[in-house]
Structure formats: structure tokens, C-alpha cells
Design goal:
It contains 6 helices and 14 strands. It has 272 residues and is of the alpha+beta class. It has a single domain, classed as Jelly Rolls (Sandwich), CATH 2.60.120.620. The strands form 3 sheets. Strands 1-12-9-14-5-4-3-2 form an 8-stranded antiparallel β-sheet.
Length: 272
Amino acid sequence: MELKNPTPLDDFLFDLRGYLVLENAVEPSLIADLNDAFDNFPPLQRGEWWGNAQRRDYTDDTGFELHNCVEVGEPFERLVDHPGYINYLRHYCGEEKSYVEGLFIDECIASIRKSGGHHPVHSGGYQGALRGRYLYQNGVFRCGQCNIILALTDIGPGDGPTMVIPGSHKSNFPHPLAGNYAAGDRMDALEGAIPVYMKKGDALLFVDGLMHGGSSRTNLIGERRVTIYRYGAKWATTRYGYQYSQALLDRLTPERRHILQPIPPLRPPEAA
């Protein structure tokens, strides 16, 4: 697939809204391979490990969420540096034009949401963590983290689309109606929030400081399938401390390994 690059219009809209929808970001053959992999996930319980991946649902309502999913199959490895979006991430959160230029994957998750599931509203510019900060200064983007939500199924009305509040990555005030993440507030009718509908193969790219969440899935048939890859600067570390297996690192291309392990461990030589 041809390597895609952000345009001046992309930069304008990303700065203004905090997100972009990249249509047809991933080719149908890879989407099919990912769906085949999803079909063969074992029936894991919450907290249960599958090799070096773990089911770790964020809340009781978010559905099946397999963390460290890059460990469970080659199709997930192809997403690490996919040409449909990787240069966008290098541009927005890869410390472009600095001595620490490069990317790191903070989290990678395979998500399945059925009827009734949702993800509560969170983030926003007001008192936001540096990890998800939005910044453009001196001609470069310096975002702490940018996310790619890749649609493996069509996500339309009733399918539980991701919702965002455009521009909230720059907010200087808390949303007075948003409640808090711990309360599990749904964002279906939250003032200012809009759903982001996608066709399978589309990707939603957004700075993590943008207020976002998953609307309630009301459709009774089918399920919402996405992958979520969170990228940040190469000096970062994984959110929950997941480590990559040596077997995975050994089989990756050099480019992919450099994203998952941009700074290899430095140890003294073994004693003779």
C-alpha cells in the first residue's frame, strides 16, 4: 500500500478539531485477516492471559479488550507501521525534528463490543495529563500521545461509534456536564459530543487529550470490532508495564522492532 502523508489541510483540521478520519487507511485483505484472527480469540475471562496478551477490560461495560494484542498474530504486527497512517503519527507525536525523534507504542488493544456496551467520557485539555497533551509550537507538533482506532466492521448509528468533542483538546475549562470517568458516565447525549461513523478499513486518528469515549451500542445484532494502537514519543513506556516477548521481537522487521523497542536494554557485558 502507498505511504500516506499528512497534508496542509490535515494539519489545519487536526489542530482545529483534535482528530482526523483517514478513509480506507487499511486495505481489505488485512481487515479480513484481522477479522479472522478475532474469530479465533479464545473465550478469555477478565484478567486471563493468552500467551503474552491479556484480557483487561477498562470497565464492566467496555466489552472484550485484549491488551498487548500485537503478540497474538502476524496481522496485528502489520499494523505497527502501517503505511496508511504511520507518517501521520511521526508528524504529530514522533518528536519530529528533535534529537529524540521516533515513535513508541504505548498500548495496543483488540476490542469487541456487543449490545449495551459503551466507554465513558474521558480526557480533555483542562488539567490534562502531559501524556495526552496537545501542543503545536515553533513550527512542530509535540503531542504526548496520538491514537489510531481502526474499524474492522462498519460503525454507524447504533453500533457504538467513538464520540469526540471537537476542539476539547485545547479546553481551558472542565465540561460542566461530563461528570467523571470513575462514575462511568455515558456520552451519548453529552453537549458538544459528536459520533464518528466509519466504514471498515477507516481509521480515526486523534490526540489523546481530546475528550472522547464510546457511545452506547444499541444494535442487537453483530458487534463492534476495532483495534486501538496508542503511539507516543520513543522515550515513553507502556501504560501498564506490558513487555514484548523475545519471540515477537526476533521475528519483527527492523522497522517494527524499533517502534516496539526503540531503546534496547543496555547492560554490561557478561563476565568471562
